[in-house]
Amino acid sequence: MDVYPLIFEPVFKPKIWGGRNLARLLDKQLPESDAIGESWEVADLEDDQSVVTNGPAKGTTLGQLVAEWGTELVGRASLFEGRFPLLIKFLDANETLSVQVHPDEAMAKRQGGRVRVKNEAWYIVDAKPDGFIYRGVHDGIDAAALRRAIEAKEMESVLRRVPVRKGHCYYLPSGTLHALGAGVVVAEVQTPSDVTYRIYDWDRIDASTGRPRDLHLEEALQCISFGTGAIEGERREHVASVWASVTSLVRCPSFTIERVRMSEGVDQEVPHQELVIWIVLEGRGSVTCKSAGSPVEFGTGDTVVLPAALADGRVQTQEDCLWIEVTIPVGSALAGYERPDRESLSKHVYSGKDTVRLNVPSRPPTS
After folding, report:
1. CA 49, CA 42: separation in Å to the nearest integer?
2. CA-CA-CA-CA torsion for 208, 184, 279, 253, nearest 10 degrees?
3. SS (H, E, C) the chain
4. Domains contained in the chain, CATH given
5. pLDDT digit string (tens) for 34-74?
6. pLDDT on residue 339
7. pLDDT value at position 338?
């Protein structure tokens, strides 16, 4: 079977803090009775497998495709403990999430099994005017101060509260204490892990059990990064042409995230030779290639996986489009040679010939 663009069936996750905004904002067909907190778009985990909905591989799991297509799917990107190297989700925080942290490398090595490093990033799809996230702790806060805040129910006093709005993007490396605030919807890009250590849950009661949810303070304290709160990887760069623009949002060892805007009526070659994922937030279009037979249509709320070995792919836009483009950094065969960096290449504005490049300073630190 030749590779072609893939779209997967969403895996919906009811959550105590979830809502119904994924239907309103992203055209998701949600189960009628549940508050849905997460929609897993691309997943290759032990208990959660994305299933292809289009083309010759329809009904095949992502794990099966990793085994069958190998480098034709992932290119030069390394598998993550034998799995597809990314997990893509949408999250709807109808209520504020628990304050939590994910395992760092040291914790993952000690525990093994399903305890894996979880680096992630949030792209803000929508937020109320007072939308916020918590990310990291204030300077001078250590484990003892954190314990005291939890016992006194003064958790907010030690957390860095960051106002957010639609279009912002935030990197959350493993070890970062964090929580998504009420009224915020995000697209989440992460390494494939589903281990979370909660340290505070706002005294919330789980209606299904009548009890508070479990907390994991001792485990969390082994991985929390206490320090200045500085997080690298969010420098912005912007490249634009007449028909398209690309904004670099996050660059880290696990993934690269860029925002792509493309005007209605574009018809051009897909300019990639490595694995690419498009998280479509606005508009509609299609990708054609010989191996797909018919065009692969995409629209708001779809996530499209473009295999590394995709041949003769072309993208057409029926409306103005906005998507988040996710790639995985790979080593270059030109290492050691002088060459332009990736963001300056013309392929970043697709077929545009006249480009403007703007270096946008990082946002000032917020508390």
Report:
1. 8
2. -90
3. CCCCCEEECCEEEEEEEEECHHHHHHCCCCCCCCCEEEEEEECECCCCECEECCCCCCCCEHHHHHHHHCHHHHCCCCCECCECCCEEEEEEECCCCCEEECCCHHHHHHHCCCCCCCCEEEEEEEECCCCEEEEEECCCCCHHHHHHHHHCCCHHHCEEEEECCCCCEEEECCCCCEEECCCEEEEEEECCCCCCEEEECCCCEECCCCEECCCCHHHHHCCCCCCCCCCCCCCEEEEECCCEEEEEEEECCCCEEEEEEECCCCEEECCCCCCEEEEEEECEEEEECHHHCCCEEEECCCEEEECCCCCCCEEEECCCEEEEEEECCCCCCCCCCCCCCHHHCHHHHCCCCCCEEEEECCCCCCC
4. 6-221 (2.60.120.10), 236-360 (2.60.120.10)
5. 899 999 999 999 999 999 999 999 999 999 999 999 999 99
6. 39
7. 46
User: Are the C-beta atoms of 117 and 194 separated by less than 8 Å?
Assistant: no
pLDDT of residue 337: 43
The model's pLDDT over 261-274, given as tens digits with 9 standing for 90+, comes to: 999 999 999 988 89
Kindly calculate the radius of gyration of the chain based on its CA atoms and give it in whole angstroms: 21
Q: Is this structure's pTM higher than 0.85?
A: yes
Q: Which residue has the tokens 């072309």?
A: 314
Which residues are bridge partners to 316 per DSSP? Answer: 267, 286
Q: How many Cα atoms sit within 13 Å of 41 on the Cβ side?
A: 25
CB under 8 Å to 49, separation ≥6 — which residues?
A: 43, 61, 62, 63
Tell me: pLDDT of 356 over 60: no
pLDDT per residue as tens digits for the range 230-261: 688 887 888 988 889 999 999 999 999 999 99
- List the catalytic residues: 198
Q: Residue 280's beta-bridge partner residues?
A: 323
